[in-house]
Request: fold
Amino acid sequence: MSHHARKRFGQHFLHDPAVIQRIIHAINPRANEHLVEIGPGQGAMTTHLLAACGKLDVIELDRDLAPVLERQFGEDPRFHLHQGDALKFPFCELLEAGEPDRKLRVTGNLPYNISTPLMFHLMEHRHCIEDMHFMLQKEVVERIVAQPGDKHYGRLGIMLSYYCQSENLMSIGPGAFQPPPKVDSAIVRLVPYQTPPVEAKDLDLLSQVVSQAFSQRRKTLRNSLKKLLESREISQLDIDPTERPEQLSLSEFARLANYLHNKPV
Reply:
């Protein structure tokens, strides 16, 4: 295939057969399932996903790759190509009226430059998604799965942990791709919660509190949140205002945000 990876799309095509098999094994697609692949590229994963699942929708932004994929897989009635931007894609509309009990299983080798906004876009569709398996920059996966006290712990992991469980499945070196990226990659599994693990009365406010806290990561909560909360208010919520933000759990951040939500103007 003569297609060259495009830097503006963040394209790095997976080509290592052993790595592909490991990923397929981790996803474990089944014949009765409806899968969605974001950024199929040259179809390295698509071949294996289509062979195993009941229906496969693929979303490809690159106009030059779309006809290549259509020629390669288009004769299979289970294959459906959507040429467009996954950041704007209405994922739940892929489920048809005859699939009331089915949810989507989403996978993809996500371009590093859009991976974070794309994951949050998918969280808006989480009610129709069973799970997600994504190839991401290794550092991003470490941030997603980080726990309080970890050096990678921050806004991304905290906010995603409201929506879903996460697991770092495997690391993948640059040599598995063409062209090789300058960083290591990893596969993360995200499984949306049916019910969030904490109550957050205003998600935008929760995001604001977390972002403000980590905007000055080395400062204590007393200092980083002083525009939002007084030290005594933080203490009233059984949270130590001398703690740093990376020491707080999701439930503690939710407590701060819910207090602000209920606070009289």
